[in-house]
Amino acid sequence: MKITVFGATGKTGSEVVRLALDRGYNVVAFVRDSRKVTIENPQLEVVQGELGDKETLRTALKGSDGVISALGPTGKPSDAELSDGIANVLSVMEEYGIKRFIVLSTTSNQDSLDKDGSRFRMRRNMIRRGRPITYEQINKYSQLVRDSNTDWTLVRIAALLTDKPLSKHIRAGYLGKDKLGSKLSRTDLAWFMLEQIDSADYVRKAPAVSN
Ligand SMILES: NC(=O)c1ccc[n+]([C@@H]2O[C@H](COP(=O)([O-])OP(=O)(O)OC[C@H]3O[C@@H](n4cnc5c(N)ncnc54)[C@H](OP(=O)(O)O)[C@@H]3O)[C@@H](O)[C@H]2O)c1
């Protein structure tokens, strides 16, 4: 199994890379600064580039069986490039016929299976007002993924992220319907995303996740 990981320098993305290597996968980490990659492994290839550069995206995606995006807003001006970046990733995936795409999102992106309520509306409004670019970009790129012909899964963060160790205890469901917790370990999040690579359970679905 060969996978390409975007956002591989991030706290969640680096856990995806580490756990994928533990599984014996070949991993291509697409990063904008290779000095940030601290993992060394003969099965890890690091491709440095920008999401706007399709040629480098081709190098990173060629021959991959699946793609995981742990990209997410970091509060920098480049956050505004995320949705164009995801559009480029989708375009190269289509060129190469790569179908499986697992993408980090948040519950700011509503799903038709959610049962909306005032608590969720209030939370969305807070993010929309407080971090408008984050809100806009998460919704924009999540919609691009939903509209694509890929076998996508949007893994929507529904809780506060923590650095707790792997427990493999994840709750996945829909807002207002399923019981979700208030915390989510990035390692468990990474593990859940990797579990989806060869599972059809959440294909073309967008579960909200927490511990
Ligand atoms: N903290 C929470 O409780 C919470 C709750 C809900 C959602 N979230 C969101 O969840 C996401 C994942 O969390 P995390 O802690 O793993 O985030 P993180 O460590 O900040 O990782 C974000 C990753 O995205 C990459 N990235 C961002 N913009 C990019 C761009 N324009 N081009 C290329 N790469 C780009 C970063 O690359 P660089 O290393 O090059 O910057 C990094 O690898 C974050 O976006 C966060 O906002 C957090």
UniProtKB/TrEMBL annotation:
**Residue ranges of domain NAD(P)-binding in the record:** 7-199
- InterPro entries from the UniProt entry: NAD(P)-bd_dom, NAD(P)-bd_dom_sf, Polyketide_Oxido-like
| Gene3D superfamilies named in the record | NAD(P)-binding Rossmann-like Domain
Originating organism: Muricomes intestini
Q: Name one GO molecular function term.
A: biliverdin reductase [NAD(P)H] activity
Protein's recorded name = Putative NADH-flavin reductase
